[in-house]
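Anyone up for a design puzzle?
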C-alpha cells in the first residue's frame, strides 16, 4: 500500500513507495506478476498533446484487463465552461482513477481535491512524475542506483524538476547545468534538499557531464512556451547534447530524453540515433511503471 492517494508530483511518494512501484513495474515487465485491474476504468484528461503518455496509459490499462477513456480538449466541457471541481466530482462517479495532463499545476491539485478517486499527474507546467518513475526504472536497469552519476543538461522544466525530486528520493547523485534564468524553481530545490539530497549545480554543461554515467536532457521549448521560442533558443546556446559535449563524459555514458525530441535543438540526431541513447527503454518503461503505480493505487488500499 502506498502512503499517498494521489500522484501530483513524485515526492508525494516516499522512498519506500518508489521502490514498491519500481519493483512492481519490473515484475509486471518480466511477466512475473499477473495482477489484473479487470472492470477498472481510467479517465484520461488531456489539455495538451501526447504520444507516449496517452498510449502507454491506454495500452497499459488494456494489458491489466481494464479500460481507459480518452478525454481530449474538445471532448469534454472542461475548458469550455465547466469548472474543474465539477468535472472531478462527475468523473469520480464513473472511473476508478483519473490521469490528467494540464497546463496549470494548481488545476491538477484542484482536480485531486474534489476527486473521490486517485488523481495521477500526466504532466503539468511544473511536474511530470510519471516520466520520473520511468526514468528511475531505466537508470536502475542500466546501472542500479548505488554510485551512479547523472547529469541534467538543459531546461529546469517540469521533467527536470520531478527528476531532481526523484533522484533525491532514491539517493541518485545528480548534477544539474541550466542557463541563467532557466534553473529549477527554488522551492523544488528546497524540497529535494529536505529529502536529503539536492542536486549539485554545475557552472557549465561540460562540468556537469564530466564523470557522468547518464546525461539527460529535454526540449528547450516546452508545450505552451512557443511564444518564448527565439529567446529560449538563444539562452540555451551551448547546452545541446552533442558529440562535443559527450567527449567530456565517458565512452560508456548513456543519454536519456523523455521525448519528443527536437533534433538539432537540445540534442543532435547523431546522439539520439547512437548506442548511447536509452530513450526507447525510457518510453517503454512509461507503461510498466504506470501499470505498477495503478496496481499499487487501485488494489492495495
Ligand atoms: N514523455 C512524454 O510525456 O511524452 P508525450 O508528450 O508524448 O506523452
Ligand atoms: N518539457 C516538455 C516535456 C514533454 C513530455 C513539455 O512540457 O513540453
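Challenge accepted. My sequence:
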Amino acid at each position: 500500500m502506498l502512503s499517498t492517494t494521489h500522484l501530483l508530483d513524485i515526492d508525494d511518494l516516499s522512498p519506500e513507495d518508489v521502490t514498491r512501484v519500481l519493483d512492481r513495474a519490473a515484475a509486471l515487465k518480466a511477466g512475473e506478476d499477473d495482477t489484473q485491474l479487470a472492470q477498472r476504468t481510467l479517465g484520461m484528461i488531456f489539455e495538451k498533446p501526447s504520444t507516449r503518455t496517452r498510449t502507454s496509459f491506454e495500452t497499459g490499462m488494456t494489458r491489466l484487463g481494464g479500460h481507459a477513456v480518452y478525454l481530449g480538449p474538445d471532448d469534454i466541457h472542461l475548458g469550455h465552461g465547466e469548472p474543474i471541481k465539477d468535472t472531478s466530482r462527475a468523473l469520480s462517479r464513473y472511473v476508478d482513477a483519473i490521469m490528467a495532463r494540464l497546463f496549470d499545476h494548481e488545476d491538477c491539485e484542484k482536480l485531486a481535491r474534489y476527486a473521490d478517486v486517485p488523481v495521477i499527474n500526466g504532466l503539468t507546467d511544473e511536474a511530470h512524475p510519471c516520466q520520473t518513475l520511468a526514468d528511475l526504472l531505466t537508470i536502475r536497469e542500466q546501472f542500479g542506483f548505488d554510485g551512479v552519476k547523472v547529469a541534467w543538461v538543459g531546461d529546469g522544466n517540469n521533467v527536470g524538476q520531478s527528476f531532481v525530486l526523484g533522484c533525491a528520493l532514491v539517493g541518485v547523485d545528480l548534477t544539474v547545468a541550466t542557463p541563467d534564468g532557466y534553473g529549477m524553481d527554488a522551492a523544488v530545490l528546497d524540497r529535494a534538499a529536505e529529502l536529503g539530497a539536492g542536486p549539485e549545480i554545475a557552472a557549465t554543461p561540460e562540468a556537469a557531464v564530466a564523470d557522468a554515467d547518464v546525461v539527460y536532457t529535454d526540449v528547450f521549448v516546452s508545450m505552451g512556451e512557443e511564444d518564448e521560442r527565439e529567446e529560449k533558443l538563444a539562452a540555451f546556446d551551448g547546452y545541446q547534447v552533442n558529440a562535443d559535449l559527450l567527449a567530456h563524459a565517458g565512452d560508456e555514458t548513456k543519454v536519456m530524453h523523455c521525448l519528443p525530441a527536437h533534433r538539432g535543438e537540445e540534442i543532435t540526431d547523431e546522439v539520439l540515433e547512437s548506442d548511447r541513447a536509452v530513450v526507447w527503454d525510457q518510453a517503454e518503461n512509461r507503461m510498466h511503471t504506470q501499470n505498477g503505480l495503478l496496481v499499487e493505487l487501485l488494489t492495495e488500499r
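A detail worth pointing out: The first strand starts at residue 41 and ends at 46.
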